[in-house]
Write a structure and sequence with these properties.
Elements (H helix, E strand, L loop, with lengths): L2 H12 L4 H13 L1 E4 L5 H16 L4 E2 L18 E4 L7 H21 L5 E9 L5 E4 L9 E8 L13 E7 L2 E7 L6 E5 L4 E4 L6 E9 L2
Antiparallel strand pairs: 1-9, 2-3, 3-4, 4-11, 5-10, 6-9, 6-11, 7-8, 7-10
Length: 218
């Protein structure tokens, strides 16, 4: 028995099923998306929200564009959010907390579903009042590495449907298109297949805060 085989056997023996992650996997398999309430608790949401607001007030954000770095265009008629890319290596206390939870999920997905997620990219996002993001798909013609899209909402606890800003995911059931409106409640995380599900952000009536990003293969 070689060293690699021994390591793999020990990893299998150490594995413990996580019911919380298993529910996420079940929803992704059955629906191609999942909604996870309270993925982050109230204290964690407050930390991340305060960090986002502080960085926005320091003018660290920039107007979001469409396309990837090789084909990037700012188009206000398509999307209206402002973003700040997060660097895990330079993460502060709040951002480190976020990445630790995401890394735990990624490790579990790779071990149980063999997704081959190797990299990730995330940014803070702030949608001012009146902004939106038209229907689109989270993949590019010249880059198909995005496997799963993930949105974490950092809004106030009293967020109401009339505040707008809902995420609408479009899917197909029995050959008929259906849509699912998901409101950006604090601590809620939405995960969906990047290359399959089109989606949009409806017009915002109160500033909408989130962390948005992608889990990517090679």
């Amino acid at each position: 028995m070689n060293a690699q085989t021994t390591t793999e056997l020990f990893e299998q023996l150490d594995f413990k099923e996580n019911p919380f992650y298993e529910n996420i996997i079940t929803d992704l398999v059955e629906n191609q998306y999942c909604i996870v309430d309270d993925f982050f608790d109230t204290e964690e949401v407050t930390m991340l929200k305060d960090s986002l607001k502080s960085k926005f007030e320091e003018s660290q954000f920039k107007k979001a564009a469409i396309g990837n770095k090789t084909n990037e265009v700012v188009a206000k008629s398509i999307r209206g959010d402002f973003i700040l890319w997060l660097n895990e290596a330079e993460a502060g206390r709040a951002e480190s907390l976020f990445f630790n939870k995401i890394n735990s999920l990624v490790a579990y997905l790779n071990k149980t579903c063999f997704l081959g997620i190797l990299t990730k990219e995330f940014h803070y996002a702030l949608y001012p009042e009146g902004t939106f993001y038209l229907r689109h798909l989270d993949t590019f013609q010249n880059d198909g590495r995005r496997k799963l899209s993930l949105v974490c909402y950092l809004n106030e606890e009293d967020w109401k449907p009339e505040n707008g800003g809902e995420l609408v995911i479009y899917s197909e059931e029995n050959g008929v298109e259906v849509s699912k409106a998901i409101y950006p409640m604090p601590g809620r995380v939405v995960i969906f297949e990047s290359q399959v599900l089109e989606h949009e952000v409806k017009p915002v009536k109160t500033a909408r805060l989130s962390i948005t990003g992608w889990l990517k293969t090679r």
